[in-house]
Amino acid sequence: MAHARPAVLALGAVLLAGCAGARGASGASPDLSFFDLQARLAARAASLVGHAGEFRIAGGRFNGDCIGFVEAVYEAEGVPLRAMMQRVAPDERGGVAAAFRAMEAYGVVFGAGTWPAPGDLVFWHDTYDRNRNGRADDPFTHVGIVEYVVDGTVVFVHRGGKAVARGAMDPARPGEASAEGVIVNSPIRAKNPRLEGMPSLAGALFAGYGRIDPRRVPPMTEVATR
Predict the structure, then answer these.
(1) C-alpha to C-alpha distance for 187 and 15, rounded to whole angstroms
(2) Coil, helix or strand for 109?
(3) What is the pLDDT, as a whole number, of residue 134?
(4) CB 166 within 8 A of CB 49
C-alpha cells in the first residue's frame, strides 16, 4: 500500500477544542447496506475535510464539534447515531461517551489488538481538561472516524479545533510523533499550560474503536419513539 503513503506525509498537526457535544433529535431514515456501509462512512468523512462550523444533513443540524461531526456523517449514510445515543444513554452528559455506549449496544467495541476498518469510530481520553482540575483524568473526550490504515498507521478524520481535518495514529508507538518524515501520531490534546509534560499524541490517548453492525440498527421509527 505504498501508494497511500503521501497522504500520511501530508498530515497536519491539528489540535482540537472541547467536545462535550449536545445531542438532539434525528430525522433521516436508514438506508443500510452491510457490505458497503463502512466504505461510505469513510468516504463521507473524508469529503468533509476543511469544513468549519455546524453540519446540516437532511434538514437536521449537528454541532460543529467532534460528536456533531460523527453524528452528521453517520446520519448522512442512513445510521441514526444521534437517536441511538439518546436511546442507550439518555442520562449521559458527554456525547463521546454516549457514542461509545451506542457502539456497544449496536455493534462492537475493541482495542488496539485488532485493526480498525474504514468507517469505524476511534475514541480518545484526556484530549482536554474537561473537569478543569489540571489532571489527565477525563475519559472519552474526543472521537473521529477511521479513513484507512497504511503501514501500521491509522489515518482518521476528526473535527479539530478549527475545522474537520485528518490525523494519524499508531497505538503501538504511542510516544513517537514521526519517523523518516512520516507522521506516526498527531498531537491531539488541546494546549493547556497546567498539563504541560503530559502525553499529547493520538496513540498515547487512544481509548478504543467502535464499529456499527447494520443488522442491529433499529428502524428510525423505533429509536425515535423510545
Answers:
(1) 6
(2) strand
(3) 85
(4) yes
